[in-house]
Structure formats: C-alpha cells, structure tokens
Design a protein that fits this description.
Pup_ligase/deamidase, alpha+beta, 3 domains, eight-stranded mixed beta sheet, binds adenosine-5'-triphosphate, ATP binding, proteasome, binds magnesium ion, 40% helix, ligase activity, forming carbon-nitrogen bonds, single chain, globular
Length: 474
C-alpha cells in the first residue's frame, strides 16, 4: 500500500486503578500509582516515558495510568501494540503488589480497562487517525459525528447502568437500572470542540498533528469505549477508517447530521433494539439502526467500486453487517464471541436470569467491573478469552513481540532504534512523538515530521557524529 492510501492509527487507553484490601483501608490511588510506576521511574527517570516499543506510558491526572500506542499503519499492528500495553501494565501491577506486600501492605492491585469508576468519573479511550491537511477538517469532523454517535451499536463495551431517582439531575422521571451499549455515552457533552475534559466532546479539534503541520492533521476521537475483544477493535478502527475514506472522497451519506447529538447518544445507548427515534437536523426522524445500515451500504458500495485497501476489509464489513443483523433481530448469539457489549450481555444476562435478579443487583455491578479487570488471572473477560470463548485477531506471540518491538512501518521504528542505541551507550535522551534528542547534543536533535518515514540513516549520522573526534562534536 502506498503512503497515500495508508493511514497512521494510534490508540490511547486510560486505566482505572484500585487497591482492594480485605484487611483494612485501600491505599489512595496516588500511592498505588507510585508503586505501579516504581520500576518505570527507575528505568526512565520519569513517570512519563517512551517504551522500547516506541509507545508512551504515563501517569495522567487523576492517577489514571495511560498507554498510548506508537504510530501503527495496519489494524493488526494496532491491536497487537495496544494489547502490549495491557501486558506491560499487568506485569507492573504484579510487581507493585509484591513491593506493597514487602512493605507490609496486603490486598491486591487491580487495573480496569473500562471507562467509569464507582464514583461516576469517566476516563477515556482515544483514537487517533492521520488526515491530510487538505481535507476540509471541520466539515469532515461534523459529518463523522452521527456515525460516532450510532457506532456504539457496533463497538460499545456494554455497561450496567444504575437506576436514577426522580430527584436526580439527569432525569425528571427516574430511570430503572438497565444494560446499555456504551460506557461513555452518558458522559459526552457535545459534538466537535477543542476541549477534552470540561466539555467532553465526541471529537477533539485541538490542532496537534504530531507531524508536519503543513501536510497533516491528527483526528482525535474521544467518544469511544475501551474495548476488550480483538474483533471489536478491528471493527471500531476498520469501520471508522472506511468512513473517513468515504468522507475524504466526498462519498459519504448525506443529511445525517443530528439535531441533538448529546441527547441522541444517551438514548441510543440505553435501547438495545437500536430503534429509538432520533431527530436529524433536517427534521426527519430516523433510528441508530437505520443510520448504521446506511453507513454500511455506502461502505459496501465504496469497497465494490474502489477495491479493498487492506486484507481485513472483508472481515470488517462482515462483522459490521452481522452486528447490525443481531441488533435488528434481538438475537445476539451471532456476535457474542466477537463484540464487547454482546459478550458481556451474554454473561451478565445469563447470570441475572439464573438468579432472578434485576439489573440493579449489586452483584451485577460487581461483575461488570470485574469484566474489565486486566490483572493476572482475575478479569472475567480474560477468563473467557483463556477458555477460548472469544474470537481473536492476533496471536499471543504477536502481542509478545509488540511488547519489545515498535511497529516497523512508521517512524515509531526510528524512535525505538534511537531509544535502544542511546540506552545501550548510557546516553541521557529525551523523546516525544516528533523529536529525538541526546541531552548532551541538543543542537543535533532529530525531527521526525513524516510519520511514514522509517529511514534510520539519521541515527547513523547522529551516533557517528558523537563518536567523531572532539572537533566534530556539538
Ligand atoms: N501524526 C499522527 N497521526 C495520528 N496519530 C498519531 C500521530 N502521531 C502520533 N499519533 C498517535 O497519537 C497518540 C498520542 O498519544 P498521547 O497520549 O501523547 O496524546 P495527546 O493527545 O497528544 O496528549 P494527551 O493525551 O497528553 O492529551 C498515540 O497513540 C500516537 O501513536
Ligand atoms: Mg493521551
């Protein structure tokens, strides 16, 4: 594939962190985070580092550990690189637990790959897509909103939503506890904006391309749930990338703008039939299911006309179509090994029925949380996966490889090689998405403005230079 048709993809995942202590009070999250990052700080002198696989691992505000994949250029690469982040944190959590126990602190450390904590705080799973600067960005972002609002039918992570009372601010009538498509839907505030926390938009328009700004833009989508199943990831990035391609080519469906995106995303989330009426800006009334069918038909036609631009396109389209069929028929068995919300629904609904529970039973809320626990041997989803009850896209060997190796098809490979060479020689360095710098040679900092440039000769040049006689040094 040429760099004209390839797209850089990246995924940032924030984790919930918690200490369970049966014998006493749990440690505050900041202290658990200090244990969690201890070996990272020893290794990289900071709790904000670029790892040997060129990903960024850091502690965000609110003590939410975050892993941002390096720049990937295929879906399988992205899925493996993202899973490498779970593997790293799983290891760090085990180390933290050992260190705490040496300090006489019992209990266990848990990391949740979810989006809501028990206090009702929400944290994110942000997607990054590289766009060419020429695209009419604002229009493209606006056109993408209805797709993203309805995309939860495909790739929501599923959530047991607690009931509300008539006195609650959110609703004047009160609402029964229920199972919803999405974790994030109830927390999104607006469509397209440059803020991330205050107004929580669906797309963040802050212009930070992490690349040559005259050529590129980075689309930052912050509405998504943290996904667990690999096929759900495949569908999330695969379908969104297809939609972007259609919009870039001016071939997306028209007149899809929603009148009230904030309200629509909430209503759609709580209706597993996909048939809640939503109003378009044109005043026409439609449903999430119908809108998604339109997107899928357009995508199928687009691929028929243009050809598939990567090997996984048929699998993306097939999964997209089967998921809409499942929502349409109310029979989720065709997707309950592949799509997050359906996998979770199968487990929780089964339990609920067997025990005659309502959705507000505390046990179901606990199971919902346990579903997302990624620490060793504990999470419900991990157990299902180990038992072979969820489909895969990559192998364990690919994930293991991604822990130690950067994607080979983007500049991430150059960043990883730089980190390896600087560390091998004990040279202090600083790195970000676009810069590589040896601290003792600041004038020779390297700039990686083209995300597709994998040429490492700049590193040979830099390291030869510092090996040269004193006169050649900076
Ligand atoms: N040019 C690019 N196009 C698309 N994605 C990119 C590009 N450069 C970097 N990325 C991806 O963007 C993500 C950036 O992660 P990071 O957590 O640093 O996000 P941020 O939005 O810059 O900052 P923060 O999370 O601190 O607000 C990574 O997953 C990375 O691979
Ligand atoms: Mg981030």
């Amino acid at each position: 594939m040429s760099s004209e048709t390839r797209r850089v993809l990246g995924l940032e995942t924030e984790y919930g962190l918690h200490h369970w202590n049966p014998e006493g009070r749990p440690l505050p999250a900041e202290e658990v985070a200090r244990y969690l990052f201890r070996s990272i700080v020893e290794w990289g002198r900071s709790s904000n580092v670029f790892m040997p696989n060129a990903a960024r691992l850091y502690l965000d505000v609110g003590s939410h550990p975050e892993y941002a994949t390096a720049e990937c250029s295929s879906l399988t690469e992205l899925i493996a690189q993202d899973a490498a982040g779970d593997a790293m944190f799983r290891e760090l959590a085990a180390q933290a637990e050992d260190a705490m126990s040496r300090d006489g602190i019992g209990g266990s450390v848990h990391l949740y790959r979810n989006n809501v904590d028990s206090a009702g705080n929400s944290y994110g799973s942000h997607e990054n897509y590289l766009l060419r600067r020429g695209t009419e960005y604002r229009r493209l972002a606006e056109s993408l909103v209805p797709f993203l609002v309805t995309r939860q039918l495909l790739v929501g992570a599923g959530r047991v939503v607690p009931g509300t009372h008539p006195s609650d601010a959110e609703s004047s009538t009160g609402r029964a506890a229920h199972f919803a498509f999405s974790q994030r839907a109830d927390f999104m505030e607006e469509g397209v904006s440059s803020a991330t926390t205050r107004a929580r938009p669906i797309i963040n328009t802050r212009d930070e391309p992490h690349a040559d700004p005259s050529k590129y833009r980075r689309l930052h989508v912050i509405v998504g749930d943290s996904n667990l199943a690999e096929p759900t990831h495949l569908l999330r990035f695969g379908a969104t990338d297809l939609l972007l391609r259609m919009l870039e080519a001016g071939r997306g469906p028209r007149e899809t703008e929603l009148r009230h995106p904030r309200q629509a995303i909430r209503q759609i989330s709580r209706d597993l039939t996909g048939r809640t009426a939503i109003e378009l800006r044109s005043s026409a009334v439609t449903t999430a299911l119908d809108l998604q069918r339109r997107y899928l038909e357009h995508a199928q036609r687009f691929v028929d006309a243009e050809g598939a631009h990567h090997d996984a396109v048929p699998r993306v389209l097939d999964l997209w179509s089967r998921t809409l069929q499942a929502v349409d028929s109310g029979d989720f068995t065709g997707i309950d090994r592949e799509i997050d919300w359906a996998i979770k629904h199968r487990v929780l609904e089964g339990y609920r029925r067997r025990h005659g529970l309502d959705w507000d039973a505390p046990r179901l809320a606990q199971m919902d949380l346990a579903f997302h626990d990624i620490t060793r041997g504990r999470g419900l989803f991990s157990m299902l996966r180990q038992a072979g009850q969820v489909e895969r896209v990559v192998t364990d060997a690919q994930i293991e490889h991604a822990v130690a190796h950067a994607p080979s098809t983007t500049r991430a490979a150059v960043r990883a090689a730089f980190i390896a060479r600087a560390r091998e020689r004990g040279l202090p360095y600083t790195v970000d998405w676009t810069h590589l710098k040896l601290e003792e040679h600041p004038r020779h900092a390297l700039s990686l403005k083209d995300p597709f440039d994998t040429d490492q000769t700049c590193l040979d040049w830099l390291f030869d230079l510092i090996d040269a006689p004193v006169s050649g040094r900076s």
